[in-house]
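Render AsnC family transcriptional regulator in 3D.
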Amino acid sequence: MPSVSLDATDLKLLAALQEDARQTTAALSEIVNLSTSPCWRRVKRLEEEGVIEGYRAVLGRRSLGWGVLVFVNVSIDDHSEEEARAFERAVAALPEIIACWSVAGRSDFLLQVVAQDLDTYADFAMTVIRRLPGIKFMQTTFTLKEVKSPTAWPLPRQR
């Protein structure tokens, strides 16, 4: 259940904005059948409540030269908060690591990494990832094909 109350109009607004965040308030107001002022106020409320965290352009990974997308499971030596924070800071500074999650299971972190090609990834893995603070183990999974990549979050159903 969402932590904020969302009605059917909010959900229509969110769906429309996930589809195209560049829509004007006038266009959004037509979609949700509100006048522009109440529509604008709803969007502002959704921003203030943290439901809408920001707006961005979705760029084509391959168009930018990132031909390889991998997931890397990482385990660290020491599970102290200091060691984990040092690892997190190092990861945050690397633009090739496009996402990082702290996970439960066999590894401690899951990294999503892009590289131009296999050779570039191999070099990055050996000279950068393996030298991150506290690395004990890493395992790379190469993606072969993007079947479905995240472009929008599923919205809660109205009850």
